[in-house]
Amino acid sequence: MLPGRISGLIEGLRADIASAATSPFRHAPYPLAHSLEYRGDPGLFGPGSISWRVIGDPASFIGGIRALLIQAAHPEVVAGVGDHSRYREDPLGRLSRTSAYVTATTYGAMPEVEKAIAQVRRVHRVVSGVSSRGIEYDADDPGYSAWVHNALTDSFLVANQTFGIDRLAPAEADRFVTEQTEVGALLDADPMPTTARELSTWIEGHPGPASSPEMRDAVDFLVDPPLEESLKLGYKLIMEAAVATVPPRIRDILELTRAPGAILAGRAVAAGLRWALGSSPSWHLALVRVGAPVPAGRFKQPLPVPV
Question: How many domains does the chain have?
Answer without folding.
Answer: 1
